[in-house]
Amino acid sequence: MPEGHAERRLVTAMFIDIVGSTDLVTLGPERMKRVLDRCFKDLSAEIVAEGGTVEKYIGDAIFVLFGAPVSHEDDAVRALRAAGRCLVKAATPVDGRPPISIRIGVETGDALVDLTAAQTDRQRMAVGACVNVATRLQAVAGPGTALVGPGTREAVGGGAALEPLGDVELKGLGPTPAWRLVGASKQHARPRVPFVGRDAELEVLQLAFRRATTGRSVLAVVSGPPGQGKTRVVEELVARIGGEATVLIGRCRPAGEGSPVEPLRELLDATNAEAVRARVTRTITDPIEADRVADALSHSAGVGTSDALRGMPIADRQDEITNAWRRYLASLARERVVIVWVEDLHWADPQLIALIDRLTLSGTSPLLLVVTARPEFAQQAGLKPTGQRFFIDLDPLSADEAQQLATLAGGMDDPITGRAEGNPLFVIELARARTRHDQALPMTLRGAIGARLDDLAERERQLLQASAIVGEAFTARDTAILLERDLGEIHASLDHLVDLLYLRSGSDGVYRFHHGLVREVAYGQLPIAERLRLHARYARNGLAKDDHERRAYHLWEAIGGPDAPWVWEDASERLALRREARQALLASAQTSASAFLTEAGIVRARRALELADTALDRAEAHRVLGDVYTVAVAGDEALAELTASIAAYREAGIAPPAKLYATIGDALGRPGGLRVLPDPAEIDRLLKEGLAAARAEGDALSEASLLTHLAERSDSADRRQQLFNEARAIIDRADDQVPFVELVAEQAMNEGLAGHALKAKELLEHAWALASRDPRARTDVLFFQSANNAFALGDLNALEATTSRYERAVAAAGPHQLLHPQRGRALIAFCRADWRATREVAQFVTHTVDEHPETAFCIAAVATLGWGTSAAAMSANFAEARDLLARARRIAHQPNIGEALLAGAFASLGLRGDVLRLDDSTPVESYTSVLAAALAAIDEWDRVLRRLPVLERRAANSDRFSGALAAALREELAARAGGPAPQHAALREIGYLGWSEMLRFRPAGVN
Is the whole-model pTM more than 0.85? Predict the structure, then answer.
């Protein structure tokens, strides 16, 4: 062997010989040489494609080496795959070349490899027993076959199909076991370092899985610092479970590298709403339930927009999405346990964390939800400990475990192993770096990764650094755009980096960094100026114009930091980039708001504000920020931003748009949105200013909206009615009234609150007609108001019909919406004095609330429990009544309104103080009926007299129930003054027997 740098290596040697080449002599020497050269060229291409190195041809034979100068973990499989390709290639005539029969011998073993020769003239590259065995196997192989020696057989494991031939006599070597190649794996087998340590942690994960198999939803949080083996321990769990579970995997990424809902998209393995629907209908056969579940899943994963969800309050929307995921996962779990594995949850959007938290609270499906996260995550996220939750903190490996891992990963002695301090990734990186003792050892994990990156050729290191701009996952096209290089060259280089374990490749053509820290270190090595320019290049050339989220991230990274002024020295270029980034950020903020990812939307709108260069820029940024805060039901912040937008528009010399003022009204009108009440005069001034702007612009929708907001704020009944009438006239004049459906519903609600039941009914019928043409209409609001209106009109049949329709509409809904129609069901039973049915509805609500402690239930559940309390008390089940009342009080989040519904319940248990407190603090007219009946039940007749005029005024406006109740109360008062016994004829005429019984009932302790 010539002098050079030689190393002992594990290699796979392959000899290829052309069978019967003497037959080619008849072709003549020139033609024969051309045929052989063409054949050798074709075979060499197949060999190089699998990573082999071809020595110069030896007569009719080719000597090939796998494992030098570059080694791969699957060199033996590569050699067999190349052998199979060569057999096919040689036997196939190409462009006038006749088919040629070849035979091949392959063997694996230790050899002394001259690396200098391997990289230069490739003469006599390797010497070793495996080389001799390979050439002898080739000599005895039949035409068109490849024989494999025992070393290769052992090295490939299950990576190839081999036919045993028994012992074969090899010249000079004697009997040797041999196999005939049948086929090799088409995928690069990349054996992982064996699993070391973590037995206790794995046992806890297996316990969590076993608990899930019993029909419980379990959450396991695996936490630890980077490189501690979080992913590896979950992979080991999945490997050991095998086919016992359905495994869904999603991964969270740092802000900007993808959509915050991308993990949900990955769990669904779908890129559009149609694909989601197809997945759902495979396991959910009921079409109504399937539609509702698919709609919510698509919306939550950002692959579709649910018009129904867009119109819901935040609590209802979160409840619907959680319920949809529960139903979908439960449908999958009917066949076998489902494991949902979410990586790096510390990067997740808060709403995704909330969803994961809620999925396993009191869940009854066989579901194991495993998440990996940084150590501080569980506490910061506020995950509540329960019996179905496991928190697994990964400690460093012991010294013995670390040394064992180091040996398996490449071999290191104790001093180097100790430097890793038990961090598995650090141990492996040091092993792969093959650090020599005469060099400084990396002091940190990042240092070890950096040292490995430094070992790369400059072009490959640049490729990794540029790819890191995109994120942990990227395509060859991304990298080619960033480096402005040929795509074919990029593919080859990326595949080589996969072989060297810097990257992983997937069947989807996506490359991923071997670990997130590898990406972070590569990114950190980029000079600042180059980093910023690459971000800008990728945003402009690598992403679609409508990919607002990722363009916003990359453009912000390019121009948003403190280094931007000196990197982008050209003022015009810098201003253009700022404008481009600002527009992308605002578009992304609006997209986030429409998907209810409000925290992300707020961050992006604030960044756009930082990049504002003019007053008009500030006006637009403040407006979008105000819109996002409005969606987030943060009224104080929304008002501040929207008024700042108005001021900025004026500074720019532009009239603020009417829609901006209408949004102020929307922000102030959302329940629970304000912490500090603004100056009423200032709000009225803004709304009137907006009204003038709407009329000047001819914006009918904003004009009607502002008139409605002003009406709701008016203290004068006449003025309120006048404004409502003006708004209604605008709606009536509109050619297309569908966009006004929410305003019509709101007007119906206000008419109902004022006791104008017939007007409310007319408006509701109009709203229902419009809603039938608008899939975005909030029918839950219409159902609620229709039930209220039927009750006010004394029409129990209409109330029952509405309630039944409502129940059918929400049959597949989440627990919050599921309980909405139960309020109507309980009220119907109470009106009919069917105490048993009323209590059964209340118990159903109790069970649902207990099953879903994470859900914020509304006044519908409070009212239902209130009717149940009264029914239990009036049927002498006082312990049950007290329990129902206690539960109702726990979920009544709006004391003056929510508890006002409980006035009758308080009275039925003789809680005088609570009734009197509510009477003092609840001026809302719509609660007068229940308060008046409760006051009568505790014999507070002076207070009843103060409430009677309100009831009688409502009766004059067509509220039949208020009139019947007022008449019954007058009868009670007359009886106390010596008149006839009350008959409550008006109440009984409309079938409201329960209310009559309530007025007669006197709880214990009340005379």
Answer: no
